[in-house]
Amino acid sequence: MGLLDGKVAIITGAGGGLGEAYAKLFAREGASVVVNDLGGPRDGSGSDLSMAQQVVDAIKKEGGKAVANGSDISTISGGQSVFDDAIKAFGKVDILVNNAGILLDQTFAKASEAAWDKVMKVHLKGTFCVTQPAFKWMKENGGGVIVNTSSTSGLIGNFGQSNYGAAKGGIWGLSNVLAIEGRKYNIRVWTLAPGALTRMTADLPRYIENPGAALGPDGIAPAVLYMVSDLSGSQTGKVLGVSGPRGVREMKMMEMEGWKPPHDGWSAQDVVTHAGEIFFSEEASQHGARRF
């Protein structure tokens, strides 16, 4: 008996890398899977349905159930197409994993409007386009689980990834809202910040310099299975970071209790005077906490 017996999952960007690992693991655990992938290189150019179909063929060869979808998820019609294929093939949607993405890294001073718009469209708008029809269906049909893929580039920051970081930070914000709006409808929403060695990340300096510390896609997939299965219970609105160097850990924004200014006015100098109440001390880092 599998952890996802009888479930139907949509996974975007599942023609390779992380999405492929999720799709194959979910299928082995009993889920029927819609494998979406536009195909083509990591910069988002071109299309090739054969990538998604190859994953579907591999799943079917192992006795699983899957269908391929090659729609562009950065469009409303593409997002609707992915949902429609799930309903047509399997009759419902229990799980959505928004994983599709591209990289067009540039330092901010050299950032082009075209690269900025394309990264935003695929990551942030794409998450919206695929999630809205699935969210609406889950709302009317007893709930489900949504996993949105963010990144430490968006939660903490990373050199040369202003477009990617901004998009991934936006996805985190979207997830927070969806968790609030979906709670009463039994829609659980997770945010994932994976760090894995894939074709998208193979030439990033941190992986070139220390390849032995990197996880492959199969090292990330168990965390996503945990999120979408009953193993995670009723948890929602949480961020799970998964990477080789730091393992599996919850990530969250921390807020100080703060200083309450008097009603009769206050000055900038008061911030200095009450800094201990307003700002985190460096002591937190000594206990393994990272602020972001």
From TrEMBL:
It holds the Pfam family adh_short. The keyword Oxidoreductase applies. Keywords: Oxidoreductase. The keyword Oxidoreductase applies. Residues 7-203 form the Ketoreductase domain. One of its GO terms (molecular function) is oxidoreductase activity. Signal peptide: none annotated. InterPro entries: KR_dom (IPR057326), NAD(P)-bd_dom_sf (IPR036291), Peroxisomal_Beta-Oxidation (IPR051687), Sc_DH/Rdtase_CS (IPR020904), SDR_fam (IPR002347). It comes from the Bacteria. Belongs to the short-chain dehydrogenases/reductases (SDR) family. This is Short-chain dehydrogenase.
